[in-house]
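--- STAGE predict ---
source: upstream dedup step, 1 unique chain passed
mode: sequence only
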Amino acid sequence: MIMKYIKRRKRFNLLKKSGIRDIDRLQGYQFEEYLKVLFKKLGYRPVVTKKSGDYGADVVLKGRNKIVIQAKRYGYKHNVSMDAVREVLAAMFFYKADEAWVITNSFFTKQAKTLAKSCGVKLLNRYELEKFIVKINPKQQPKQFVGKTRELN
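--- STAGE serialize ---
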């Protein structure tokens, strides 16, 4: 019982520190811009692609490796399908990237996980995203992106 309480308390603190609930309120392009901020803090030169015709990548990271990211900002109960994995895999070849990632504020279907594993695509689900944000500890929090328009570039 005490262990359950401790686990629940840790989960709540992570939820609070990460700002994931603010991410739940972002538009898709705002989520992409927030990911740009996170990866810039890690030393990458991130580029957010066009809203449409992006060849499957929402963010392209340039640095030690070139990484393409498919960002899926969904409702909490909407799981990301294997379509996102296929799109980012195509983007990896189009952008001549070394790695392909799908990052979401939600979770992945079993099929998406299976396909990603077999293709070497990295998946970050809601919980992993929370830990990632807390680890980076950016000055700009997701709530600062709520309501902002595309002029962030």
